[in-house]
Write the structure tokens for this entry.
Amino acid sequence: MTLEASPAVDALVELRGVTFGYDERPILKDLSLTVLRGKVTALMGASGGGKTTVLRLIGGQYRAQQGAVLFEGQDIGTMDDEQLYVARRRMGMLFQFGALFTDLSVFENVAFPLREHTQLPEALIRDIVLMKLGTVGLRGARDLMPSQVSGGMARRVALARAIALDPELVMFDEPFAGLDPVSLSTTARLIRRLNDSLGVTSIVVSHDVDETFRIADQVIILADGGVAVRGTPEEVRASTDPLVRQFIGASAEGPVQFHYPGPTIEQDFGGAS
């Protein structure tokens, strides 16, 4: 089951026939997908399926070996360093586990992109940082160091940093990993609320089916280098695809195997004496 975007759909990001791999190991094979403007798109699938790779292609850390990665109609892969730097100013990224600078305070972490990308006076930077921290409920934690905050708080600080420049696109790489149920639910609701209140477009890479389906407008499940299913959470839940059923049901039995492909037992041990 797939829901193809029509030409009239307002897409912020598009991947068209993208192929990418590491050395001789293919990851994405002729992948095409659309990220709708103003929506929360969940990018899901088994580990190693290329979800984080898609984020890195959109951010320009990697270049597609074939195909095009479009951000507002412009091919990221053809941009020079200056053009890419400008494009990245319009993107925010929440890295897995937050990736805060450990030697900088909460305040300085959020201020970092403002100092890196703008020439704003310090007084204005202070006001923006405090507003962004207030948005995630952590204005009072401004002077704490990353080692002094919980995992859930660190994730919210990272989110404040990701939206510091008022980006059009925010990408979340496993924002729920390692969080307790309360922090996970709080972070999920915050992603949804900020997406709607700020008018941004969000891509959420996650393995947490229930919480991600609760906040997503569109779910895309990757498998075998392409799209296994695409649709609303309800449509994806109704899919009869065996791989999708295995992923949603967290089943050990199905197309995704426990053993990594390799020689058979006989090939490895058959000649042993």
Summary: The chain has a mean pLDDT of 86.
